[in-house]
Amino acid sequence: MSRTNKTSPELFEKRTGIKYQNWIQAMSVEERRNYVNNKIYNIDCIEGLKPIEDNSVDICITSPPYNVGIQYDEWNDSMKFDDYLTFAKDWLSEVYRVLKPDGRIAMNIPYEINSKHSGDGRIFLCGEYQKVMKEIGYGFAGVIDLTEDQPHRVKLTAWGSWLSPSAPYIYNPKECIILGYKNEWVKEIKGESYFDESQEKKDEFRELVFAQWKYQAETRKLTEANFSLDIPEKALKILTYKNDLVLDPFMGSGTTAVACINLDRRYVGFEISKNYWDVSDKRTKKALSKKLTTEKSYEFFK
Hints:
- The protein has 302 residues and is α/β, with parallel strands linked by helices.
- Helices cover 35% and strands 19% of the residues.
- The chain has one domain (9-149, 172-301): Vaccinia Virus protein VP39 (Rossmann fold, 3-Layer(aba) Sandwich).
- α7 (230-239) packs across α8 (255-262).
- α8 (255-262) links the parallel β9 and β10.
């Protein structure tokens, strides 16, 4: 299959049932509100973000493609790095537009990548993204270091030179979460928090405000680049309130949406791959069914 980074008007109309030409202008206020009501759309995120109203989203939690040459079915992950940064600026600008004045972003990326496929070499990806975000207008709120319970061992060392290393390849395989905000980090309106006065929740709060999060890797082959459920769930607990609207421009297998269902947050997201969208649709339906069953059991035994 030909891998592209855009949704054609024809494909857009087929996947959404909406006429591409002037489709945003033709939407009513009610249609715009329903557009973000727990939906995942099988379209490119740049197109999908356009109908979302300015200043309407509480947080963006996502893990964008890293541009490391992964063989996605409908995405070119081998762009020249300058082109990749242009794409990053495009989607981050749209996210900035839709975030509320006190809206936040939590973005999971690796500290560094090696773009051998494009000839760009080693890149401090975390730093490049932060520069783009600052240029757009995002405020910086910190970096969370992620530690996988069973990390993958680096296999890039040239062992033939270990006795006399003239150019050792020192590589950091770890990932992080960049935290940012639109205008204000402090929430203007306080909602219903995940935390309560129990000792268990107090201990969990202490762990989350310490910016070194442990997470369990997703070992199932849901997509070519799996997103651990631990990451969005932790972010939702510490950064959002009940019923907040959560955006994920790169839904993949629907992990962020599943986390939202589990924690009573609303969601909207986009996934360009039809195969991955199918996975996300099944996962969200299963998560919602499980939650409804649990709630009914609770009411029965209450």
